[in-house]
Structure prediction request, 411 residues.
Amino acid sequence: MGKAVIKKLRVFVPFAFGYFLSYLYRVVNAVIAPDLVADLGVDPSELGLLTAAYFLTFAAFQLPLGVLLDRFGPRKIESLLLIFAAAGAFIFASADSLAGLVAGRAFIGFGVSACLMAAFKAFVIWFPRGQLPLINGLQMAAGGLGALTATAPVEAMLGITDWRGVFIVLSILTLTVAAIVFMVVPEGDPGKSDISFRDQARGVIKVFTSLTFWRIAPMAALSQAIFLAIHGLWSGPWLRDVAGLNRAEVANTLLLVAVAMIAGFITLGAAAERLSRYDVRPIVVAMTGMILLTAVLLCVTIEATAWVLGLWLLFGFFGTAGILPYAVLSQSFPVHLSGRVNTALNLLVFVAAFAAQWGIGSIIELWPTTADAGYAPAGYQAAFGIMLALQTLALIWFFLAGRKLKYSVVK
Prediction:
């Protein structure tokens, strides 16, 4: 194994561990939601709020994160932030009120806010640009493994300990990964690190005033936000209340969805790289996947429960298409702006995910609970229908904005 390959593994593997934990934190509430409701008596809106607090602090730090990544590099920033995530997991495990749970989730969201963006920044530094769709897809597959671990394996752990014990274990693992990132990842030049913070702020403005960015961002942000909001929380309750699955069946179904998600990240990333050799741009692969995700969400919204497993497997697979625009935008801006363009998109993604996850719960709460203390299917239908309409509008905007826009690298 050559030195170049070893160096690339030193870059990829530690960041993959970090994103594994980030995604595990993101979706674990879909499995432990019944325990949180039973122990603390939270209602649907509160459940959506405490879970979505992760997204709010995650989003709030994205713009300063982009500046920090471009100035100091991904190794130092991610290893430091993961310490906050570990503290958040401990706070969550110790909480005995809604406020404590929200605070813990907020710390976790802040602490893992760099796990994907730091990796993408490192990949821009250490990998050829043509490999970015594939390596980004492999990074997302590591997140898919985290989502998989958050399903049946967490359910099995709940037979040994409770949800508090799960989060204590996660806190310890997070500190371990922080140390691995700091000690293993090689130091690299993040870009133009000698420029002033004022000039870096101008780079943020350049990103947010680019039509290339705004053509892609709404579609990518809404696609990911809806996927994160539903997969990270409301998929489990939907499978229970609409499809009629018991707790073990829900966990097993979510495990299979996570497997489909891993397959989607790898397959769509590889397809984007391979098809680019034949002049098929990665945005075409991304757009196709997001259109198919919208079609699947339509079937879920109209409660096509006869195909419940197949629908949710497709949801997991095509829900990964929203990650491809990161590589598209990275290739449309100079390297020294790569951290800021990715975090600008991530800001929109996680603000939208916060609003979607909490909003879905607030809409579901408008309907009375069922006789067995579940949530009304009509509530899910209304909430998912609104998400479907928003994503459709974003897809229409993508086509309208692209009539006169030609892709080129932003100078």
Observations:
- The chain has a mean pLDDT of 87.
- DSSP finds 18 helices and no strands in the chain.
